[in-house]
Write a structure and sequence with these properties.
Strand content of chain B: 15-25%
Shape of chain A: globular
Oligomer: heterodimer
Radius of gyration of chain B: 19 Å
Radius of gyration of chain A: 27 Å
Helix content of chain B: 25-40%
Number of helices of chain B: 10
Number of domains of chain B: 2
Order of helices and strands of chain A: HHHHHEHHHHEHHHHHHH
Distance between the termini of chain B: 55 Å
Largest sheet of chain A: 2 strands, antiparallel
């Protein structure tokens, strides 16, 4: 019992431990001057991807709605946050206070847009919501392209202040930790339970008194808020915001990270977003020049292979033998969590019936006895 | 609101709904008193589930009014009607399948005043969050114990056998602290033993929680063993109302169920 509790807790804290370890390790490397600029850039990218994947995972994995406009929210955050930061640069310089203010403003701007778009859109379901959010992303992009050069830079983009690369990724990872804290606590609370209930059955959750519209809106806004923050970080990481980056493909890419990590699985989302970003950046540096065309081909090929490995029914036996989870369990001799076991076959002997087999057998004995002694049998019959 | 004991818990007046040209039900007058177990019976397609959907706010009635303890609840949303004290189960079971049994019940406890905990308190992990969560868990266990589901609490809801899923749905509905509990075919798919046990359980929860129960059922044995009064519906209209034996001897009811004697 105690051991089970311990495992349970480790499961809850593994994300913090993992991210915290990476943060500390690379902070030390960076502060002692051992991290190259390309490594710092890679880490920033990974942190941004994690924020995006976890925040979209809230909507897709936990709420069960398909949103394809995540890059749109990111775009709003990037432009508003970048602009605020550029405006504050004269008075505050490129310090942490400027960074914090611009992050919060960018996040809130995206969050407000999340509420505005969510109010009408969340009345729609499934495919329709996906179409509306897709259109929203394109609208945002088009609006920022058509701004004047003085306001948001128009087609040439908006240049943002240059923060110190040595610190930027550390801030990004601290934000990842804060976000994980908020998201994980929320999911494990009664509100998170209500959100997953909406995913499982909207009709039943309404009948149980859960305010479905309010929760959908809250999750949508929270997800947009974090996407906005990721956008601000993105603008600082690239020194420049260009809206052509926040297109439909980027939204799909975030969705791919969520789906590969597993719906409703935060740890999976973190791992898959880190790996996909790593893959992209590595492919971009390895294959340059004439080989650049191969980047997308290889990227797509690897994605297809991962999806097949994860989902093909024929590979089930192979997966059970060699998956990371099984190896991990073998090493630590951990039994599978009964809550996650979904196999109906395993439960065949646990189907309770009102007819107790032992009683039936003993009844037979009583009957033979009563045949031998008719008087007692008469009593039994009464 | 409970001061008015004399007021009926549920009262429908001239209740009706039509979808396009089709009148799903019309002129339905039902009055259910406190602590009564009331049955709604009738052939398939008679409009029984439609009435449930009207009471719980899934459909808006085209004519008539619905009163819960004297309060008009027609145009309210499903959530608000649930907060006012109407809980229901579904004909085709609708559980939160990917959640454990205890979590299903805890969702039912969500809106209770004693388990209030704001969004921010939860997200930032205030001490209240832990207190509420622990109290909810205990309360949910208590409810599960009544239905004999305590042992199953860490299993996924979809892995439960059918009879237990039915019970769990009732447990979840009860967790919302209803005044009126609507059960849509609670005994469907149960064996005779389970049905008899369900009769006892329903009587027990009526007395324990002081609630009124309205149920739909086809099994007349079940209805006669349980219900104080019944209403028979046919083609969306009330055919007869009264105690079970009164209703079953009503010639119009016999006609609806068995058919007319041709002479």
């Amino acid at each position: 019992m105690i051991k089970h509790k311990k495992n349970f807790k480790l499961k809850h804290y593994i994300n913090y431990i993992g991210i915290g370890f990476v943060t500390i390790l690379f902070s030390i490397l960076s502060l002692t001057g051992n991290a190259s600029i390309s490594l710092q850039f890679l880490l920033e990218k990974i942190a941004i991807s994690i924020i995006l994947a976890v925040s979209l995972g809230l909507v897709v994995g936990f709420l069960g709605e398909l949103s394809l406009g995540h890059a749109g929210f990111m775009c709003i955050g990037a432009y508003i946050g970048g602009k605020v930061s550029a405006m504050l640069e004269a008075s505050l310089g490129c310090g942490i206070s400027n960074l914090l203010i611009s992050l919060i403003v960018g996040g809130i701007a995206a969050g407000i847009c999340g509420v505005i778009i969510g109010l009408p859109a969340l009345r729609l379901r499934g495919d329709y919501l996906a179409i509306v959010t897709l259109a929203f992303g394109e609208i945002v992009k088009t609006i920022f392209i058509n701004t004047s050069a003085e306001s948001f830079g128009g087609a040439t983009g908006l240049s943002t202040p240059r923060y110190n690369r040595e610190f930027l990724f550390i801030y990004a990872f601290i934000i990842v930790l804060i976000m994980l804290f908020i998201v994980q606590n929320l999911i494990r609370s009664k509100h998170g339970r209500a959100i997953t209930a909406i995913r499982d059955s909207e009709i039943a959750s309404r009948a149980t008194g859960i305010n479905v519209t309010r929760y959908k809106l809250l999750v949508f806004a929270l997800s947009a808020f974090f996407a906005g923050i990721a956008g601000v970080l993105f603008s600082f990481s690239n020194y420049r915001v260009q809206c052509t980056k926040f297109d439909y493909n980027y939204s799909i890419e975030i969705l791919v990270m969520v789906v590969l990590g597993g719906m409703g699985n935060i740890t999976g989302g973190i791992i898959s977003s880190s790996l996909i970003t790593l893959l992209q950046v590595k492919l971009a540096t390895l294959l340059s020049g004439n080989l650049a065309v191969l980047q997308n081909v290889l990227y797509a090929l690897i994605l297809v292979l991962i999806v097949i490995y994860n989902n093909a029914p024929r590979l089930k036996g192979f997966r059970e033998k060699y998956s990371i989870k099984v190896l991990f369990n073998k090493i630590f001799k951990k039994k599978a969590d009964p809550a996650t076991v979904r196999d109906d076959e395993a439960k065949w002997d646990r189907v309770p019936t009102k007819i107790n087999v032992d009683d039936l057998l003993s009844m037979d004995l009583v009957v033979t006895e009563s045949v031998a002694k008719p008087d007692k049998g008469g009593e039994h019959n009464e | 609101m409970n001061n008015n004991v004399s007021l009926p818990v549920l009262e429908t007046k001239n209740l009706g709904v039509s979808f396009g040209g089709l009148k799903a039900c019309s002129e339905v007058d039902i009055t259910i008193n406190k602590k009564e177990i009331y049955g709604l019976i009738g052939p398939n397609g008679a409009g029984k589930t439609t009435i449930f959907n009207l009471i719980t706010g899934i459909y808006a009635p085209t004519t008539g009014e619905i009163y819960l303890c004297g309060e008009k609840i027609n145009k309210l949303s499903q959530e608000t009607i649930c907060h006012k004290g109407v809980a229901r189960t579904f004909q085709n079971i609708r559980l939160f399948n990917n959640m454990t049994v205890i979590r299903n019940v805890m969702v039912g406890l969500h809106n209770r005043k004693e388990f209030k905990c704001s969004f921010i308190e939860s997200a930032l992990r205030f001490p209240r969050q832990f207190k509420v969560e622990k109290a909810m868990r205990e309360k949910a266990k208590e409810i599960l114990r009544i239905f004999g589901l305590e042992e199953e609490r860490n299993n996924l809801a979809c892995n439960l056998p059918y009879g237990m899923q039915r019970k769990l749905e009732i447990a979840r509905a009860l967790a919302t602290e209803p005044k009126l509990l609507l059960l849509d075919e609670p005994a469907a798919g149960m064996n005779p033993n389970e049905t008899m046990e369900l009769v006892e359980t329903i009587k027990k929860i009526r007395d324990m929680f002081d609630i009124t129960i309205l149920l739909i059922e086809h099994d007349l044995k079940f209805v006669s063993g349980l219900c104080d009064r019944v209403t028979v519906l046919n083609f969306g209209k009330v055919l007869s109302t009264g105690t079970v034996s009164e209703v079953l001897n009503d010639p119009s009811v016999i006609e609806a169920y068995i058919g007319k004697d041709d002479e």
